[in-house]
Amino acid sequence: MSNGSDAMETQAELLAALRNPRVYPWPAEGVEVIETHISTVFLAGDHVLKIKKPLDLGFLDFSTLERRAWCCEEEVRLNSRLAPDWYLRAVPITGRADAPALEGDGEPLEWGVLMRRFPQSALMDARLERGELPVTVMEDLARVVAEFHAEIPGAGPDTDYGSVDSVLAPMLQNFEQLRGLEAAGADPAALDALEAWTQAQGDELEELIDSRFQGGFVRECHGDLHLGNIAWHEGQVIVFDAIEFEPYLRWIDVANEVAFVIMDLDHRGASDHRHRFLNAYLEHTGDYGMVRLLRFYAAYRAMVRAKINGFMASQAEAGSDARQAARQRVTDYMALAQRYTQLRRPELVITHGLSGAGKTRVAGELVAAEGHLRLRSDVERKRLFGLSPDARRDDEPEQGLYTAEATERTYSHLEGLAREMLEAGWSVVVDAAFLDPRHRQAFRDLAEELECDFRILAVQARPEVLRERVKARADAGGDASDATLTVLEHQLADYEPLSEAEAAVAEVVRTDG
To answer: Where is the Aminoglycoside phosphotransferase domain (predicted)?
Structure first.
């Protein structure tokens, strides 16, 4: 591994010249420069020029001009998947280091990536810090990421991207590299404990990791999905700066990618945003099988950020505020990784109520307040039958999707998903009517079997309010619920209140004011 100090000095003259706005063949009144641990970014006028530092850090190699040229082309290719309107092309920089020309004549002395510019204030990390990132935008982000994951190619059976060794290799490399970065100030005992936990988890999860590879969940992902690489601009989610330099870091399980967003939001203390993103992604994809892997991958992502800040500390001047700030971030990210190693006793919550009572809203409030994962019967019932959540069905009671057999199948499916999540240490709220006491008892038995806390949210409203809501929802469309007034009247006629034993663990929530 080389820090490329000689090459960095050679490149420094060029970087100094690129600070001059007259270098650029488009109007630019000034040039703003952003330094990362691997790139120098020039914001000039309506465009951005990104230059890769001539480094070999082990997990990336930009040490030669040929490597940097290839990586520039790869960066444009990969980012055109999610940000096609923003990534323009790889550009040669010719001329002299002190008088460069973008796409001029002669042999390239450097290569860069040319992009359209959006305001730095549009970055999600900046918006969140200012309190200007609506939590509802997380649903848009979840949809963008879920659709992206559905479209990108999966790893072929002849690759080893999905093997446990390929998963563990970059994880263990984080610990090795942090130990070699004296300036990072990483606690040796904490590194040892986290490394041992990572190795043990890899061994324990090997079968699941392999089955997800076989199931097609290892794909050519973004690879570096955190809020600093996502913008919300003019109502559009823009995901950029995918990893181009190492295929193993982007050919990953989609769970690994989702975990990065979760970790980043946890680090920023944005729990509501985190819960909204994760639940929206899971509901959109139905990939509830990933939940057992999320803490494993989130701890890895925290260590990635710890390592990156370790590099930043090493590149900063000794004794400087920049080095001290980077060292503190190393400590913070390692503490977050340690949090992911600790499991808490999960809770199973079920709703109970008639159509129109507001069960989904109440369950959503629980998600926001306490971070439960939500299972919606309206969504999962349709998924079982190959329908999208917004597909409208006008089946009457005991017909189509709502026969006794279909209902039993739906509740059995919900129970299986809840079991999987609870066993992985996640609290769950199941948003369903639960009008049949047999179904309520089955979930209570599940909680007892798994030694989880159990609670019923009894959501209630007056019949006239229920009728108004069901009619308005059916008229508006766009909701996963297919309930009609006929369905509601059928429920009202057959309604049985909770038993005395159930009432003892129930919380009554009235939604009619």
So the answer is: 114-290
How far apart (Å, rounded) are the C-alpha atoms in residues 447 and 432? Answer: 17
Q: Model confidence over 26-66: pLDDT tens digits?
A: 999 999 999 988 999 999 999 999 999 999 988 889 999 99
Residue 457 and residue 355 share a domain:
yes
Q: Strands of 221-346 (E only): list them.
A: 230-233, 236-239, 251-253
**Cβ-Cβ contacts under 8 Å for 158 (sequence gap 6 or more):** none
Domain count, the chain: 3
Both 330 and 352 in one domain: the answer is no
Task: Quote the tokens at residue 503.
Answer: 């009432």
Residue with tokens 């404990």, as numbered in its chain: 193
What are the beta bridge partners of residue 460?
510
* 111 and 223 both lie in a single domain: no
Q: Are 385 and 401 in contact (CB under 8 A)?
A: yes
Whether the pTM exceeds 0.85: the reply is yes
pLDDT tens digit sequence for 183-239: 999 999 999 999 999 999 999 999 999 999 999 999 999 999 999 999 999 999 999
DSSP one-letter code for 424: T
Residues 498 and 420 in one domain: yes
Q: Which of 302, 325, 340 is the last residue of a domain?
A: 340
- Do 45 and 158 fall into the same domain? no
Domain boundary, last residue among 117, 139, 159: 117
Which residues, listed in sequence order, are joined to residue 154 by a DSSP beta bridge? 219
Q: What is the dihedral of CA 19, 21, 25, 26, to 10 degrees?
A: 130
Residues 6+ apart with CB under 8 A from 72: 52, 90, 91, 111, 112, 113
The residue to which tokens 């204030």 are assigned? 121
Q: CB under 8 Å to 371, separation ≥6 — which residues?
A: 271, 274, 275, 427
Q: Are residues 216 and 259 in the same domain?
A: yes
* Identity of the amino acid at 92: P
Nearest CA-CA partner of 355 in 486, 444, 478, 499:
486
Q: In angstroms, rounded to a whole number, what is the distance separating the alpha carbons of residues 260 and 294? A: 9
- Under 8 Å between Cβ of 61 and 52: no
Domain co-membership, 397 together with 281: no
Annotate 376-403 with three-state secondary structure: EHHHHHHHHCCCCCCCCCCCCCCCHHHC
Full residue range of the structural domain in which residue 44 is found: 5-117
In a shared domain, residues 152 and 270? yes
What is the CATH classification number for the domain harbouring 255?
A: 3.90.1200.10
| Angular region, 256: left φ>0, alpha ψ -120 to 50, beta rest | alpha
Q: Within 13 Å, how many C-alpha atoms sit on residue 457's CB side? A: 26
Q: Residue 459, SS3?
A: strand
187 burial via Cβ count (<10 Å: 0-12, 13-18, 19+): middle
**Three-class secondary structure of residue 225 per DSSP:** coil
For residue 456, give the H/E element and its range: strand 453-460
